[in-house]
Structures are given as structure tokens and as C-alpha cells.
Design brief:
Bound molecules: adenosine-5'-diphosphate
Helix content: 40-55%
CATH topology: Rossmann fold
Shape: globular
CATH superfamily: HUPs
Strand content: 15-25%
Number of strands: 5
Structural class: alpha/beta
Length: 168
């Protein structure tokens, strides 16, 4: 039976670390759904449709990857799409505790579900969406860390920020 895997995340915005994880996962599973999670507790830079568009433009070359979004429990979304694998990336030990708890909880809620962890590529071990946003805010260059469509969207953000500063 074909295996569908779900790769959930905030992807605000998607980085080359995420693209690396999904590229490697796309060779392991028949179908991957990258799902942008609407998390009201997190302050976001891009809204959900924009985040989805940026993910689509960044992974369009991977034929077995599709992009969706959802709110609420990841396990419910997984069940609805008959996905019994969740993919998560691990960068450092600091990711471990939260991811471990989350995978145990998801397993309790959906026993047929397996969480598969993909280790970050060494070059992207210290890469996170929040770090990218911070660097952009401070005027830094993130071109080696994000896909081209994201780079474009971020330059728009930083030019808007500059315009805002000039108005003050
Ligand atoms: P969330 O808010 O769910 O953590 P993120 O978009 O920050 O959403 O991350 C989604 C998933 O991708 C998480 O499992 C995270 O650990 C993983 N991830 C994020 N950045 C990287 C990276 N540079 N390398 C590998 N995995 C990563």
C-alpha cells in the first residue's frame, strides 16, 4: 500500500532546511503532504496563503509533494488524509525534548501513526525560520538560507520596513 507522510510545520517562511528535509523524505515515501499549520499562538510574518504559495514555489520540482494547510490537531489532519507517518526535522538536542513529547502524544491519539525524524543537514543545523526573520529585520542577507521565492518575498518585507523607518 502506498505510504503517505505528512510534514507539518509553521513554515514562516520555508527555509532551505525544510526543503532539504522534504527532498530526502520524498525519496522515502510515496507521497508527502507539506502542511502549513495555522498556529494562533505564534506571531507570523506571512499569512497562511502566502506561506503556502512560498512552499509550493519552493518544492514544485518534487512531483510527489503537495501543499495544504490546517488548523487544530495534526493527528486529525493525518487521519483525514490517511497519512500514517509524520515527518519532523531534528537540528540539535534542544529540538529533542519537545519533539519527543509531541510524538508520544500523537502516538497516544493515533496509535497507527509513526513519527520519522530526519536529521538536519550540517549546513542547516543552526537554521530556523525565526533566525531568518531576525536577520532580515536587521538588514542581513539570507540568500544562502532560503529558496529563491522566499528571498524575493523577504526583500519586499525589508524594503517595506525601510520605507516605514523613513516615514518615522
Ligand atoms: P514548527 O512551528 O512546527 O516547529 P517549523 O516550520 O519551525 O514549524 O519547523 C517544521 C519542522 O521542520 C520541525 O520539525 C523542525 O524541527 C524542522 N526544521 C526546521 N528547520 C530545520 C532545519 N534547518 N533543518 C532540519 N529541520 C528543520
Amino acid at each position: 500500500m502506498p505510504v503517505t507522510a505528512l510534514y507539518p510545520g509553521s513554515f514562516d517562511p520555508v527555509t532551505l532546511g525544510h526543503v532539504d528535509v522534504v527532498t530526502r523524505a520524498s525519496r522515502m515515501f510515496d507521497r508527502i503532504i507539506m502542511a502549513v499549520v495555522a498556529n494562533p499562538q505564534k506571531d507570523s510574518l506571512f499569512d497562511i496563503p502566502h506561506r503556502m504559495r512560498l512552499v509550493e514555489d519552493s518544492v514544485g520540482h518534487l512531483s510527489n509533494v503537495s501543499v495544504e494547510s490546517f488548523e487544530g490537531l495534526t493527528v486529525e489532519f493525518a487521519r483525514k488524509h490517511r497519512a500514517n507517518v509524520i515527518i519532523r526535522g531534528l537540528r540539535a538536542i534542544s529540538d529533542f525534548e519537545f519533539e519527543f513529547q509531541m510524538s508520544q502524544m500523537n502516538k497516544t491519539l493515533y496509535p497507527e501513526l509513526e513519527t520519522v525524524f530526519v536529521m538536519a543537514k550540517l549546513d542547516y543545523t543552526f537554521l530556523s525560520s525565526s533566525m531568518v526573520k531576525e536577520v532580515v529585520k536587521l538588514g542581513g542577507n539570507v540568500s544562502s538560507l532560503v529558496p529563491q521565492p522566499v528571498q524575493k518575498a523577504l526583500s519586499q518585507v525589508s524594503s517595506n520596513l525601510k520605507k516605514g523607518e523613513m516615514r518615522h
